[in-house]
Description:
By secondary structure, the chain is an alpha/beta fold.
Amino acid sequence: MITVVGTGTGAPPPESLAGAELVVGGRRHLDAAAVPANAEQVVLGPLAPALDIIERHHDKGSRVVVLASGDPGFFGIVRVLAERFGPGALDVRPGVSSVAAAFARVGLPWDDAVVVSAHGRDLRTAVNVCRARPKVAVLTGPGAGPAELGAALGSGAGAAPSGPVAPRGGAAHEHSPAPLKRVLLVASALGTEDERVERVTPAEAAARDWGTAVSVVLCLDESRALGAVRTVAGPPPAPSQWALEEDAFAHRDSMITKFEVRALALARLGPRLGDLVWDVGAGSGSVAVECARLGAAVIAVEKAADGVERIQANAAAHQVDVQVVHGSAPDALAELDDPDAVFVGGGGRELPEIVAVCARRARRGVVVAMAALDRVPAVRAALTGAGFDCDGVLLQSSRLAPLPGDVTRLAAANPVFLLWGVRNPVYREGVAQ
């Protein structure tokens, strides 16, 4: 058997290492453990050489002990060892994970928290999860620590979160970035005499050098940190309904993406946890809100001040985070982080230019809704010109409507063109790779 010991918030018990002929772990784990004098020690760095050494000892029946942080089955080395040697070869003795310890230190339950690893992974996923969810634990790594997370949350994400907006009429708030209402709790050196948990804003985190002792970062909306009683751990389940009726949103003079159009748009956008979606020309924000309900981080861009207010009110009513930029595309898009997917609504003369800018920035796809036939060729050209595979449909629907005499007719809705482009993986920003 290969014994995998989670050190939790303290050193492993001495008996865990008794008789070990090979002990593998990080330098700090080996230094803290009572490693037998005659045991070979391997400091974990690149995994492949360590796994080869483990295999040699395992094949000849030596006792192997692997030291790991916290619960080694939770974003830990158990996965790699099980893939190489099989689960039956492992004797796993978990410790207290850094996530559980950090939440315990601040006195919060964490069955409703989302845990995301940025260790050796793209930080943008962790950033987008923090934007979308009120309680997130981020496992950090080199180049993806509190400073980088704070910098990403504090910039490039548009204007203020759901809530009151600045008075109308002034241009000072146009395009001005403001972070979501988030606080970072940085837990360092858990289980040691140097342990500390520090509460900082994203901006304060970005301005610090945190060193290498950080264990985990909790990103919280403190007003929602307790959450509701849950029966299923992790992120909330997907909503039971989407493409909601128009009356689920505040809107002006029926200026809202109708639910039939919204249903297909959502299917083509594919919003999910870890994604960033732009809703450009957001109007009432119905698409933005629905993408947020499905787990994505969302930035809504709207040029009308009363539209900004409606988007924020709709986001608050549906209890989701939507960041709003008050400004006109394409200029308002310049400082935003690159999205995974973009929805573009409305349509004036500048629509093809806006779509072209969005297409150059989108990682996965762009969906465009428009009523004017004249705009279709130019929008299609903008999508294909950016290297997208383009498709589309004209949506014409008729809804049941009552007539006098307890009878029903079909009431036709205005037709809408929906075009969508999907990123060709060998084409980025108009240049073949």
